[in-house]
Write a structure and sequence with these properties.
The chain is 43% helix and 17% strand. The radius of gyration is 22 Å and the shape is elongated.
Length: 82
């Protein structure tokens, strides 16, 4: 059974080896699935897309941290006392 791929564009491993830049550019800025025996084995992700993805993950981690600390008691602080 062939697994569905998330990216709309896929290339074979031989296409990637023959021209890696063209393979990545075929995704028009989005990830490209690299297929081996018609199964996605890995994804080529353009640098801009990867950086945005990492930034979004980090933001989600910060949101989780903030949410986990919202129930903690707060301590009033006067800036002049610091």
């Amino acid at each position: 059974m062939k697994q569905p791929t998330r990216p709309e564009v896929s290339v074979s491993l031989s296409e990637l080896k023959a021209n890696p830049i063209a393979a990545v550019e075929s995704g028009n800025g989005f990830p490209v699935a690299v297929l081996i025996r018609e199964k996605p084995e890995f994804y080529c992700v353009p640098a801009d897309f990867f950086e945005a993805m990492i930034e979004r993950i980090e933001e989600q981690e910060l949101v989780r941290l903030i949410e986990s600390r919202q129930s903690e008691p707060s301590i009033p602080v006067n800036l002049e006392d610091l």
